[in-house]
Amino acid sequence: MSDPDKQRSNAQKSATALKYDGKSAPTIVAKGHGELADDIIALAREHGVLVHQDDELNRLLSQLQLGDNIPKELYIVIAELIAFSYVLQGKFPEQWHNIHQRIDLKT
């Protein structure tokens, strides 16, 4: 890829990072475009943070400022992503019961 092509592709890339403490709404803790977006994603992966790629969700989140809580309109989608990330990591709430036997707990 030539330098102009790389710059064009980096200019279009963006990333927004959320922090969730389990008590209050998730908060925007980092956001950026181009090489900064690449750095945010690389740092997240380096620290074992799962990365979800969704251009439309990122477009909405990127409109927020650092330190902002996500708006109530995004609670459900963000909650589903957080819950799914917990399942991928093998984490389940203490009260959770696998009543439908759809998740293999032996892994």
TrEMBL record:
Cited Gene3D superfamilies: secretion proteins EscU
GO cellular component: plasma membrane
Pfam family, one: Bac_export_2
InterPro entries: T3SS_substrate_exporter, T3SS_substrate_exporter_C
Protein name (Swiss-Prot/TrEMBL): Flagellar biosynthetic protein FlhB
Keywords linked to the UniProt accession: Bacterial flagellum protein export, Cell projection, Cilium, Flagellum, Protein transport, Transport
Physiological role: Required for formation of the rod structure in the basal body of the flagellar apparatus. Together with FliI and FliH, may constitute the export apparatus of flagellin.
Sequence similarity: Belongs to the type III secretion exporter family.
Source organism of this protein record: Arsukibacterium ikkense
PANTHER family recorded: FLAGELLAR BIOSYNTHETIC PROTEIN FLHB (PTHR30531:SF12)
Alphabetical GO biological process terms: protein secretion
SUPFAM superfamilies reported in the protein's UniProt record: EscU C-terminal domain-like
UniProt lineage: Bacteria, Pseudomonadati, Pseudomonadota, Gammaproteobacteria, Chromatiales
